[in-house]
Amino acid sequence: MRRLFYTQACYYYEIIKKRFWGLTGTYLIIAIGYFGRLPRRKSLLAAILTGPDFEAAKQGYAYLPPFWLMIMILPAFIIGDSFGAIQAELFSKAKGLGFSKREFGLNNLVLITATNLCYLATILIALLMVDLTTTEAQGFIQSGWLTSYQDLGLRLFLILMLLSLIQQICGWLNRVLLLLVPIVALVYTDFTVAMWNPLNLVLWPRMRLIGNEIVTLTIVGCLVLAIGYGYVYGKYELK
């Protein structure tokens, strides 16, 4: 199993490394350059996640915040159809060595999780360093920005995992859905009022109006989708 995972991970990294560093780096340069010059009373991460509140959506004044949309959608572009390419390249060889399709799928889940963790850690560390250099350490802690990073970081990870799993499952039906479904879900969230929608957890004006039960629901949703992905991937020969 370790041998298979190492091989898959190497192939996977070779496929996504240019997209990962190119897209993430470009996004950080633009976001820090834009928000770093503005006077603000909240952390850079909170500023990036700012969007229309529920009242604006109700009255038809919602808008699509580009920095929020991009931070949420970039993992979909980074991962893309990487696992389809890896399966086409490696699965027949792995099967010949006695590895099962389910083991292949479980490794995919680990790689999806690792990608979102590395993506989120890169962004959080970069934004945190900028906030620390522009604010004294004591003032940073007293302002509550550190708690903001912890809370938003957890919520972002859950939502990114949710979107990635939905993306990969929908991609089995049609490759076009790999990017279309996450984009439609984010745009729908931004322009509608649906308190049950877990994607509201990462829109700054809305997240405080969403109960903690939605966080629990998101965790359960991620677990169900991950189990479903592993089961279906291992049971059926999906193209």
Please name the defining characteristics of this protein.
single chain; 239 residues; mainly alpha; 0% strand; globular
Protein topology:
Layout: H1 2-35, H2 44-48, H3 54-58, H4 66-79, H5 82-96, H6 101-134, H7 137-142, H8 145-171, H9 177-191, H10 204-207, H11 212-235
Précis, in short:
The chain has eleven helices and no strands.
* Class from secondary-structure proportions: mainly alpha
Task: Give the number of DSSP strands.
Answer: 0
Largest sheet: none
Strand content: under 5%
Q: Level of helix content?
A: over 70%
Number of helices: 11
Order of helices and strands: HHHHHHHHHHH
The low-confidence parts are: none
Tell me the Rg in angstroms.
19 Å
Number of domains: 1
* Outline: globular
Q: Name the average pLDDT.
A: 87
How far apart are the termini?
23 Å
